[in-house]
Amino acid sequence: MTLTTSLSVKLRELLELISAMRLCPNGIRKKIIVYLGWKIGDRSVVRWGINYPAKRVFIGRDCLVAAHTFFDGAGSVTIEDNVKIGPFSKFLTTTHPIEEKAPRRVFGKDIHLDTKIEFGCWLGASVMVLPGVTIRSGCVIAAGAVVVKDTEPNGIYAGVPAKRVKDLAPSAAVLAPIYTQPTIVAQSAHRSSADADYDGFAGNR
Ligand SMILES: CC(C)(COP(=O)(O)OP(=O)(O)OC[C@H]1O[C@@H](n2cnc3c(N)ncnc32)[C@H](O)[C@@H]1OP(=O)(O)O)[C@@H](O)C(=O)NCCC(=O)NCCS
Asked: Is residue 26 a contact partner of residue 7, using CB atoms and an 8 Å limit?
């Protein structure tokens, strides 16, 4: 590896580190993400703790990617407009053929599959989306679900593997602003730092 290549790898690692920090403003993180090669649309927010192994990530407009989301593999992850992703979710894009003899996974045999979340979905916390899966528009994926195959549009999916538990009415394809005043206000007179943080994410980009 030449000195120049080695410096550019280190620069990349440094930028990944900075953007993963909670104290990095969302706006700076967004610039770093774009510099690192991802695409991200207007008014979309990516929060801290993001894990970067995937190089091909395309995020539309008015999206929220909450903290500690993990993007893995050499396939692409496409997140269409107006999608909200809960914290600690994982998007996988690479898998491996299972060998007949042990070891079952041999290094160097990779299958890259594109993963996609269509318009207007909400994924709860700790959702895992397997390689090649498309979550069709208007779906809600319940916290902790593992989505192993494509969904149909406008439904709630829950569990491992995720199954459709409820139908939802199709929603209008309107780009709503990412932040509206919360309808449930804190009951306590003492606002926690989490409240302040939630209030802040729209302005801090
Ligand atoms: C999906 C969700 C929004 C509930 O939607 P809902 O319309 O109120 O659905 P219900 O509570 O009526 O649940 C429907 C069924 O799914 C099941 N279910 C709901 N959430 C589930 C989950 N996370 N895992 C497994 N099953 C779940 C319910 O037990 C119920 O099953 P039943 O019909 O056999 O009783 C909620 O469960 C959820 O996961 N919210 C995400 C919260 C979160 O992650 N917040 C932080 C990130 S933004």
From this structure: no
